[in-house]
Sequence to fold (276 residues):
Amino acid sequence: MNSLVQRQIAFNLNSSNAWEAFSSHRSQVTWLLKHDTDPSRLCILGAGNCNDLDLTTLLQSHQEIHLVDIDLDALAQGVAKQNLANQGHIHLHGGIDLTGMLDLMSHWSPKVTLSKTDIAACIDAPTHCLEQLPGPFDGVASTCLLSQLIKSIVDTIGEDHPQFVTVIQAIRLGHLRLLLKLMNPGGFGVLITDVVSSDSYPPLPTVPTQNLSQVLVQLVRQGNFFHGVNPAAIVNLFRQDPVLSKQVASLEPVGPWRWNFGPRHYAVIAVKFQKK
Ligand SMILES: C[S@@+](CC[C@H](N)C(=O)[O-])C[C@H]1O[C@@H](n2cnc3c(N)ncnc32)[C@H](O)[C@@H]1O
Fold:
């Protein structure tokens, strides 16, 4: 198992008992993934411990729920903790690398020079998972996964690498294109991402809820946010990338809200979108 996968598993073990702390974040995420029309098939990428998903509530509006993650044990234990281990409508897809690149990336270092092929693969390789998943789906969500995909690049080539920005832009584009590839025409998508944490902005836990949007705008202006998850840049990408913009019928930014992770708090946003 490569070091990048090991890091994700360690991260999940660390937060496996955080069900209580996740409560208000879970309500927000679950509300975003509910669907009020026909019974549907929902696919959730980066479901991990499922602490941010009230699966019983989601089963009321979805006929099938497909949970996808690199870490199968986290999925299995997360579902078991919600007493849904033998629920025939929940399907686990563990061991799936949603970048399609983690083995290759684990050999990258600050000294490596990446080829055009490597960069193009960051955009295209996420689609390798399409063969392993029973898509397309009526709803597809990415739950605080994008920042982790980008963290793999921070941990390998590092922030000072001359191609760092190019690579994280490619990873982000590949992820957004994957969401749309997994969706049925008319289906809905929800990209949820943590943007900044109390590690770099310690007052975050005490910011009054009504001031959170304004504070986040200021933090983004000051460059105080995780690489690659500037909310405005994500919305612009949906609108401007030739592949994405052709497929997106509507876009709705949601949030921010706060996620109490235990050791730290995060400001989180979502973008809801519909496929033409
Ligand atoms: C921050 S956690 C999301 C929180 C999670 N939904 C929960 O409630 O515990 C990010 C998840 O993304 C998964 N992940 C990270 N990189 C991945 C990759 N390349 N492919 C698939 N899953 C990945 C991790 O294993 C982890 O479960």
